Amino acid sequence: MDQAIAKLVDISDSKAAMQAAADVMLERARWASQVFQRYDRKTTLAITQAVAKAAHDSAGKYANWAVKETGFGVAAHKKLKNELTALPLVEHYRSRDFVNPVYNNETNIIEVPKPAGVIFALAPSTNPISTIFFKIICALMTRNAIVFSPHPAARECSIDAVNTLIKAAEAAGAPEAVIQVIERPTIPLIDEFMRSDKTDVILATGGTPMVRAAYSSSNPAIGVGPGNAPVFVDASADLKQAAGFITESKSFDNSVLCTNESVLITLDEVSQQLGRELSRAGCHMCKPDEVDLVRKYLFHDRGFNVEALGRDASWIAQQAGFKVARQTKILVTPINKIGVGEVLSREKLCPVLGYYVATSIPQAIMQARALLRYAGAGHSAAIHSSNDQTIMDYAASVEAYRVIVNAPCSQGAAGFATNLAPTFTIGTGYFGRSSVGENVGPHHLVNWTRIAWHKDATTNIDPTHMAELKHRGQLPKAPADGVPGQSRPRTQSKPGTSQTQSDPQLREEIRRIIAEELRSAFKEQK
Fold first, then answer.
1. Beta-strand relationship, 221-223 and 145-149
2. Averaged over 9-36, what is the pLDDT?
3. Which of 184-188, 402-406, 426-430 tops mean pLDDT?
4. DSSP designation for 87
5. Residue 138 a catalytic site member
6. Is 310:350 a contact under the CB 8 Å cutoff?
7. Residues forming beta bridges with residue 452, ordered by sequence position
8. Domain ranges of the chain
9. 283 forms bridges with which residues in the sheet?
10. pLDDT of 474 above 70
11. What is the DSSP string of 9-59?
12. Distance between CA atoms of residues 486 and 25, nearest Å
């Protein structure tokens, strides 16, 4: 029946058909979430582990596929990103219990985890597979259902990757439809999913318009803003190490991570030496006429030239009108100002690094602040220094929620070269007009009911009572909402009997509601 429904939904792009398509998937997701929220921690971890292993085993396959389909990035780097969002992610959170109640005897409070329910997730074209792996594993850790909308530019590899994880999850015992994927995403269809009252939370990773649409959907949303990270290298830094880390970071996957360094700010006293170290690390220091060519190629009246996104440095140079060695990792473009009037101080998701020379540490910090005010507020910043006071002054001044010290910013801000939480969804907080300022993880997909006694009370909690505090899933909504279990008025039950339907009955109710909605939807089209 599910296959037949899917075929029916595909025949029309009318609003009624799109509403029906969204309702079908979200109804199934809600059913799956209600079942999944009854699972214990051992079973939940076993499912998550199985899915993470499937993701890890297929990391190389989907890295190659993503590069071939999108045309940008570095397959070896994408493979590493895909692996990091699989088994290491599970290990990072293995000690965290998102399933069982927790009692704090100091505060006399019991905390009971309540999963979000149904997550609607978006994936970008720049990091399609790693984002899919990350969000699905986070959803499974917290016993949520998730519906994925792949980016059209990475549609084929994304759909196949989601289906691989679906098979692994269901084989390990996950409820049917706990993971789903939209196979023909369109903006109007995505809008139906985002606005549906059957969606409990939206995980939006993508362009600014899509993130803003998620926030304006009327549903809870966790969105992220663009990056534009400044990196400051002062006179006390290990210049060779700094040049190596910056080159490693900016060239990683051809700079498609939003955590990459956008503009390098340094001091006049070390500029020449740092430039030599950058050249030795594989960078090309552009001459003034080459800077002009890069500027004109990368930015036009409509903004950033997406043809350059994730391309090799030598390819970009050739397209701009000059030649560099094929092994060149980064094009370094000296600029005289930061902010309005200098487009090379905007975010560049390609291996092109702005280079600004300041006259003093205070001016350098001021320019780093200006860069984030221009674009990328709340995201990330980096500094290479051995002076603790400079590091603290810089971190206190920049409007960023991640400041990476003496490490590559791309990997460091994402939690893979530092001890920050590993993520592929970077919160930009209030500076960046986001609801979350930290690295997004599974803990953002579960809320906690807190049972609190009077602060002067003496309690002796029985562990057996704690075991009974397991979340039983969300209650069905009113009949008009189309949620299973509430389509008929309830009659007064006899004392001591339950009004809750058995699982087989609930499943049949879902199918009946779906069929009715489809018949109604397609009747309106005629």
1. unpaired
2. 84
3. 402-406
4. H
5. no
6. yes
7. 109
8. 26-223+440-449, 229-413
9. 330
10. no
11. HTT--SHHHHHHHHHHHHHHHHHHHHHHTT--HHHHHHHHHHHHHHHHHTH
12. 18
Query: Which numeric CATH code is attached to 229-413?
Result: 3.40.309.10
Query: Which contiguous run of DSSP H or E holds residue 363?
Result: helix 361-374
Write the CB contacts of 492 (distance below 8 Å, at least 6 apart in sequence). Answer: none
DSSP 306: G
7, pLDDT greater than 50: no
* Euclidean distance between CA atoms 283 and 278, whole angstroms: 5
Amino acid at 389: Q
Residue 194 scores a pLDDT above 60 = yes
Structurally, at CATH architecture level, domain 26-223+440-449 sits in 3-Layer(aba) Sandwich (3.40)
Tokens at 446, concatenated: 């579960």
Map residue 156 onto helix, strand or coil.
helix
Task: Calculate the alpha carbon distances from 264 to 276, 335, 364, 499, 524 in Å.
Answer: 14, 10, 10, 65, 58
What is the per-residue pLDDT for 495?
Answer: 39
Catalytic residue selected from 138, 157, 258, 283: 258
* Bridge partners, residue 110, by sequence: 103, 451
Whole-model pTM: value is: 0.85
CA-wise closest residue to 418 among 404, 439, 438: 404
DSSP state of 384: E
Structure tokens at 316: 């970009």
Mean pLDDT, range 215-225, rounded to an integer:
80
Which tokens hold the place of 284? 């090309």
Beta bridge partners of 354: 263, 333
Residue given tokens 């990476």 in the structure block: 404
